[in-house]
Amino acid sequence: MARLSLDATRQQALSVSLATGAYGLSFGALSVAAGLDVWQTAALSLLVFSGGSQFAFVGVIGAGGGAAAAVATSTFLGLRNGFYGVGLAPVLRPLRGARKAWGAQVTIDESTAVALAQPAEDLPARRAGFWWTGVGVFVAWNAITVLGAVLGSRIGDPADWGLDAAAAAAFLALVWPRLAHRRAQAVAAASCVLALALTPIAPPGVPILAAAAVAIVAGWGHPRPEEVPE
Question: Where are the bilayer-spanning segments (predicted)?
Answer without folding.
Answer: 12-35, 55-79, 130-155, 161-180, 192-220
